[in-house]
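Re: beginner question about structure tokens

> Can someone show what the tokenized structure looks like for a real chain? I only ever see the sequence side.

Sure, here's an example I had lying around. Input first:
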Amino acid sequence: MKENLKAKIHECADINLKDIPFSEEVVNICKSNGCGKYGANWCCPPAIPSMEENIRMMENYRGGFVFSTVTDLEDSYDFEGMAEAKNKHLQLTRDILEEYKQQYPGARAFSAGACDICSKCAYPGSPCRFPDRAIPSFEGMGVNVMALSKKYGMHYINGVNTVTYFSLIIY
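And the corresponding structure tokens:
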């Protein structure tokens, strides 16, 4: 991986895809629509494959790379800082995915939260406008990201007034 990309990563691990902790509870959090994107975004449930379909899909891939970024915020209400950090994290995810695709053309990425490329998602009436840039929700696919990070010695929480985002590349 290029050094400029490595420098932007807080923590990372190569993972065995069989170690991914899927949880119906995580999917149910999405279904409760706490973020408002359930049924309103091509990268969130129910538009993405079900947890069971994702578990089966993982059998077709060799391995995974999970990584996090951490950004300092002005305070715990710095929503603008959180949004900016998420955008930077998603761009890093796209850049890392492109590197993986050079060696593994079928590589895919999953990341934090709903896609927000478009101010208003085309779901459900029209196809995704940017299918090559859109990245499905890591949690929306049913992954307990907190348990996965713990299993691989990564920090899910990184201190007061910080935001941590995770992504997964499968190849």
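Each token stands for a local structural state, so reading them left to right follows the chain. The beta strands are 11-15, 64-72, 108-110, 162-170.
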